[in-house]
Amino acid sequence: MTETTSGPARGSRSKGSKNKGLRIERVHTTPGVHPYDEVVWERRDVVMTNWRDGSVNFEQRGVEFPDFWSVNAVNIVTSKYFRGAVGSPTREASLKQLIDRVVGTYRKSGEANGYFASPADAEIFDHELTYALLHQVFSFNSPVWFNVGTKQPQQVSACFILSVDDSMESILDWYKEEGMIFKGGSGAGLNLSRIRSSKELLSSGGNASGPVSFMRGADASAGTIKSGGATRRAAKMVVLDVDHPDVEAFIETKVKEEEKVRALRDAGFDMDLGGDDITSVQYQNANNSVRVNDTFMKAVESGSQFGLRSRMTGEPIEEIDAKSLFRKMAEAAWACADPGIQYDDTINHWHTSPETGRITASNPCSEYMHLDNSSCNLASLNLMKFLEDDDAGNQRFDAERFAKVVELVITAMDISICFADFPTQKIGETTRAFRQLGIGYANLGALLMATGHAYDSDGGRALAGAITSLMTGTSYKRSAELAGVVGPYDGYARNADAHNRVMKQHSDANAIAKRVDDLDSPVWAAATEAWQDVLRLGEKSGFRNAQASVLAPTGTIGLMMDCDTTGVEPDLALVKFKKLVGGGSMQIVNNTVPKALKRLGYQPEQVEAIVAHIAEHGNVIDAPGLKLEHYEVFDCAMGERSISPMGHVRMMAAAQPFLSGAISKTVNMSESATVEEIEEIYFEGWKLGLKALAIYRDNCKVGQPLSAKKKEEKAAEQAEPEVEKVVEYRPVRKRLPKGRPGITTSFTVGGAEGYMTANSYPDDGLGEVFLKMSKQGSTLAGMMDAFSIAVSVGLQYGVPLETYVSKFTNMRFEPAGMTDDPDVRMAQSIVDYIFRRLALDFLPFETRSALGIHSAEERQRHLETGSYEASEDDVDVEGLAQSAPRRLEAPKATTTAAQSETSAPKEAHSSTELVEIQLGLNADAPLCFSCGTKMRRAGSCYLCEGCGSTSGCS
């Protein structure tokens, strides 16, 4: 059972305070009218299936939602956030019940702790919060929806930072605390730099194990807990300081494991996502980051030496070339995306509580950075809700209303700490003493496009910076107002000078920021006024919160708010995948595209023609009437006109000076990116004042060459075997009879379609294979014809099928990717798919199980019972003759290759898959373990559009 701590609010109203609580203003609501009475409600049936095998993952009928909520938002909220056993009378069945459960708890706690000036103010708070949630103006993070107002511990935080010292007791506590956080579906990060290195001695005289060795135990624990989870992995971050003597071993951990993956794949082991043998690979459950300081980065810049320091004495024990170590970091990131980089001096330069302790680590997604053994609860605003047309038909960002909503949300978030439970006593004590909050936003990419700004442009960065500055300035303003009502955070008195210094730094950054156009200038003006209030009120009353803002991934809650883009990310693509009421789906051009074209001055008939072009081609290239200088407005994360890596870095730099914490974002790079480009990005991130940075090079997880080792293997293959030939053996060909049973299977692999006919001996297994690809006469079709003849002849000469299977499965080349086969979800190539399918159809269970090949039913059984084999009650006696093929009805008519191109199109089930089809790309994203849909990136994490599952913060 999770250990929890609770109690009254600390830092409550100060003695002798004359304030009677906050006065709450109405922004959206009308006196005497409840927000629920202003919308149209309707009943819907939520039935969520795994499209690969048709199984029902979740079903609840007759749920009640506003008519303007999308199918996806309704599905996510019903399946993820409604509490109570499905089918029971206690199960929530209306959005009203969910919102009332949460808002009622916040109001009750706010009244009990003296936040409101009167009962009338409490009611306004209740109505305004209800309206904002009902109309998808903002959302709390997922733990709030899971836990608040229920009988279980009311954990409201999604982000945690732990600590570990150089003792076995502390290390074992780390394992336990991390495990309990994972069990609750959250993630944690920590810095291992206090653990002495493997180059130092123990008090007993032996060598220390070093932090890398202890990472193995923590990784195994996380992997075990992950395997038992249903919706998210065990998310974790491991940080090591750049001056730790074991930093090189830390950098190389995942590179070596990726080499292991390649070698085991080539040997025939099942190393696919979710495969049995992937568990032998270590260090895969964490994001790794190296914490660099200014001394190191300056040494890189000058090409000088840098000292690695003893953990026990602080003295240098080894001198290394800084540029060489920096190169190793970039090479490792090029090979496997780890480690990321965190800029220690920049992080602590913006630290509001340095007298209590340094900031040493972050949460798994890298946006929350504060004291060890602390937590942060998140909430995100939907920026598109504040884009309006003025009386003249011109667009404007409603800065005044945005600021009012920020005040409301910050008030609610701070109230939540009064009643919240925490996974450990240490985390509870630190969080109550410093009251860290993480307000942020989503839909920035959609907002920029809708306003006619390119994501990588001065105008786009200016608007993003202005909104971020207004958000954080307003948050600290309200925090100072709260301090005047219920007192500053407990740690403020000790850290007052530092906290006020950081507020001045934010204000100064706001003052010098570049103003570009009529959209961002009014927002900057509002932000300037907010920061002036922050300095004035903070000097008088202090602050209620040590931290106010971060930019989180906004995964599941982004879907709940019907956001087109997550966090600070640009749009994924111009064409979206949309679910329809009553079932089915359709592809639509983003709603932001017409708004952008209107903003850019195009007439309605021009807009219609451009949108039609995008719908057909998936991009704006050669769109009729679209000016070349406007192409960049429609650049996206993927596609022919994708945003450059430095474009992502510059956007992060525009927002970072106005955030308390950091930004969850991964800079995507093409497969052809070089190590030098990664070095440049890591270096520019430091120069531009970022706090953390991570990159991902497309296909790096499977495309990393084995250099010298591979050459040695190739040389060994070419060498003559030293075996004396004693007996010459000539096999005899056994031809198939004229009439023979067979199976014809249609398949799609990475968009390539084809048919496989597998004929067998009447009583003795597979005898021949015929492969037909679409586009008759193409090189691929010709090669597959020749390949199938060669395999067929080999089978008839006695080559065992399992030999082919062991040699050809896991072979990787294009086309590769998603398939339409529920038993083989992903294939590394057409050859990989073919022999997995043949193994499932013709090999005995024991043989293919040893090769790591199982059907969807068997994998599901393994998840439920721990065994792939059916129990005696489940055994199908007739199906035990597995050497005979499946018997399918013969097709009524032969399908030609030309017909197959139109009759079996690849079907998309998410925006990521749609982009792959339209642009011919292969997105490196995992499949959702819950519903089988291909996920998409959300910050540093992944998000499933099908069921809302995430791999990190929500």
Automatic annotation (TrEMBL):
Keywords tagged on the record: Cobalamin, Cobalt, Disulfide bond, DNA synthesis, Nucleotide-binding, Oxidoreductase
Keyword Nucleotide-binding recorded: yes
Needed co-factor(s): adenosylcob(III)alamin
Catalytic activity: a 2'-deoxyribonucleoside 5'-diphosphate + [thioredoxin]-disulfide + H2O = a ribonucleoside 5'-diphosphate + [thioredoxin]-dithiol
Domain Ribonucleotide reductase class II vitamin B12-dependent N-terminal: 46-136
Every Ribonucleotide reductase large subunit C-terminal domain range: 157-696
Residues annotated as domain TSCPD: 740-840
Gene Ontology biological-process annotations: DNA biosynthetic process
Top-level taxon of origin: Bacteria
NCBIfam families reported in the protein's UniProt record: NrdJ_Z, PRK06556.1
Name of protein: Vitamin B12-dependent ribonucleotide reductase
